[in-house]
Each structure stands twice: as structure tokens, then as C-alpha cells.
Design goal:
329 residues; D-Maltodextrin-Binding Protein, domain 2; Double Stranded RNA Binding Domain; alpha/beta; 13 strands
């Protein structure tokens, strides 16, 4: 019997319980049903993770990416789920024993964007008055902006997307704007709240940002086939290289590592840029490489390793090793 004929009629999909996570799980379920017409059901189960439950502290202060994945992996291991859908930027670059990244779907806009307080007329960050407060819980974002705009202030803002927008628009709130991933706003139909996006001249985006990662059990050829059929080559090449870079630099989701990548399918050339920056924005290094991609997994991973080596030659390790998150205000 071919692997295609082994695909079951019901595939259980799991993800976090936030509004955005549910939209992402539904998107993957639809991709599966479109690709495999014989599938009758793709039930979606929603779970709260530790990262969802602890909303009073900045992420860097109480854990890494396992905040978003541990509870879901337990369900996957127990075979209560067949596929777990993650925002790829929330997935650890090294997964626990028994799990693999089965596939990466087509990427949404990976950029960061500025969302101004309702009624604001500013057109750029450079127009904001001195001491304007920027809302972001990301060290990567605040570090890059401190480098360019030392007169601005930065405060953590947590909660789901609607909560953060409400905090921003509250007339009593201190925030002039907040920085968010463009993809989250686009997926939730809130594109109108994007005041302007930031390119790498102002903001390198997070590793895997805008992409969805499909986690499955190791040695599950049927679910691996399902993931292969709905995966996107361009997103896979770029994101595997970005994740390899982060893994090689031994960086977690809270460290100031930024990337920008593109893959030309006609020439099979991957171009990947990366930066490492100190928390206060005073030390900044960046580098880029191009690599021909023949074997997607092997060559994409090698690209990340090569870029990591280039950044390390410029001092990336020293910057990362000097970071003490207890000192971050």
C-alpha cells in the first residue's frame, strides 16, 4: 500500500487557544483537506500553554520557547493529536527527543510593523517626540530601535493582539505606538491597523516570523507525508536557514538576533542577512551570505551555519555572552 493510501480519514490538529493560534490551526486544517479530498474531518483542539497563562512578566524573564510548546507536545506524544501548529518563531530550534519539524507552510509577510495609537498622525518613528513610549516585549525589537532612536523609551506590553491594541488606544496609556509582527495583524483581518512596516534598515525580523511550523512525532511517515504535501519550498529554505543560524549562535527567542532572507526559485539562490545587537543597542554587527540550494535540508542548514561563522568572526558570540537579562529594565 502506498503512503498516500495510508493517510487516515481523520487527522487531529492542535494549537494554542489564542485567537491568532486558532486561525493558524484552521488554516492548516483547510490546507490538509484541500490536498487530501478523502479526509472527512480535521478536528482542532485548543490548549493554553504556560506562555499564555503568565501575562504579567516579559518573556525573557521566565523562560524560553518551551513556554509555547510543552503542553502541546505532551498531547502529541500521547497520540491525542497528529499535528501541532506553531508560529514558527515560537518553536525551539532543537526539539525534544521524539518530535520533529515536519513542515513549514507558505509564509505570510515576515516584517515587523508599527501600530500607532488611534488618531495619531505621525508617519515614521523619527517623527515621534523625545521620550515617547514604544510598547514591545521583544528584546530584539527594542535593541534595534534603541540603536536608531536613543531618545525613545520602551516598555513591555503583553497579552493577545486585541488586548495590546486596547492598551495602546486607551487615552490614559503611556504608549505612542506598539511594535507587532505584520503577519499576526494580517491573519486576523487587522491590516488597517498597520501604520507602516519596518524593513531591515530599521528592523531585522525574528527567525521564522510569519511562518507556521508543523510539529509531528518522530518516525511517523504518514504524517510526514501530509506535511510534505502542504509545505512551501521557499518558506522552508528560508526558515531552515534562519533556524540553523539561531541554533548555531545558541540564541533563544529572547535574544537580539534578527534576520531577513529570500529564495529565488529560478536560480535556487538563497540570500540571508543576519544581525546580532546588544540589549542597549550600542553594539551591532550584521553580515549576509548567498548559497545555492540543491538539497533543501542540508544546504539550508549549512547556510545558517556559514552565516553564524561570519557573524562570530565579527564578534557575535561576545555580544550574546555579555547579555544579562536580570539587568534589563
Amino acid at each position: 500500500m502506498s503512503i498516500e493510501h495510508k493517510v487516515p480519514s481523520i487527522i487531529s490538529v492542535g494549537g494554542r487557544s489564542s485567537a491568532l493560534a486558532v486561525i493558524q490551526s484552521e488554516h492548516v486544517a483547510e490546507l490538509i483537506k484541500k490536498t487530501f479530498p478523502h479526509i472527512e474531518e480535521t478536528p482542532i483542539t485548543k490548549y493554553k500553554t504556560l506562555g499564555d497563562n503568565v501575562l504579567t512578566k516579559p518573556l525573557y524573564s521566565f523562560g524560553g520557547k518551551a513556554l509555547w510548546t510543552k503542553e502541546l507536545e505532551d498531547k502529541l506524544e500521547n497520540k491525542e493529536l497528529d499535528i501541532v501548529v506553531h508560529s514558527l518563531k515560537d518553536m525551539p530550534t532543537t526539539l525534544p527527543q521524539g518530535f520533529v519539524l515536519g513542515g513549514i507552510t507558505k509564509r505570510e509577510d515576515p516584517s515587523d510593523c508599527v501600530v500607532l495609537k488611534a488618531g495619531s498622525t505621525y508617519k515614521s518613528l523619527s517623527e515621534l517626540p523625545q521620550d515617547s513610549v514604544i510598547g514591545t516585549s521583544s528584546v530584539r525589537r527594542s535593541a534595534q530601535l534603541k540603536k536608531l532612536y536613543p531618545s525613545l523609551k520602551f516598555e513591555s506590553v503583553r497579552g493577545n493582539l486585541v488586548t495590546r491594541l486596547r492598551k495602546l488606544d486607551d487615552p490614559q496609556s503611556p504608549f505612542a505606538c506598539i511594535i507587532l509582527a505584520s503577519a499576526g495583524l494580517i491573519r486576523q483581518g487587522l491590516t488597517n491597523r498597520i501604520s507602516f512596516t519596518l524593513n531591515k534598515d530599521e528592523m531585522y525580523h525574528a527567525v521564522g516570523q510569519g511562518a507556521l511550523g508543523l510539529e509531528i512525532r518522530q518516525n511517523d511517515p504518514v504524517m510526514q507525508h501530509v506535511c510534505d504535501m502542504i509545505a512551501d519550498k521557499e518558506a522552508t529554505v528560508c526558515c531552515l536557514a534562519e533556524r540553523s543560524l539561531m541554533r548555531s549562535l545558541e540564541g533563544g527567542c529572547s535574544v537580539p538576533i534578527g534576520v531577513e532572507s529570500s529564495f529565488n526559485k529560478d536560480t535556487s539562490i538563497l540570500t540571508i542577512h543576519g544581525c546580532v545587537i546588544s540589549v542597549d543597542g550600542t553594539e551591532f554587527i550584521e553580515a549576509s551570505i548567498e548559497k545555492f540550494i540543491d538539497d533543501v535540508n542540508m544546504d539550508s542548514n549549512e547556510a545558517g551555519i556559514l552565516l553564524s561563522a561570519k557573524l562570530c568572526e565579527l564578534g557575535a558570540k561576545e555580544i550574546l555572552e555579555s547579555i544579562r537579562f536580570d539587568d534589563i529594565k
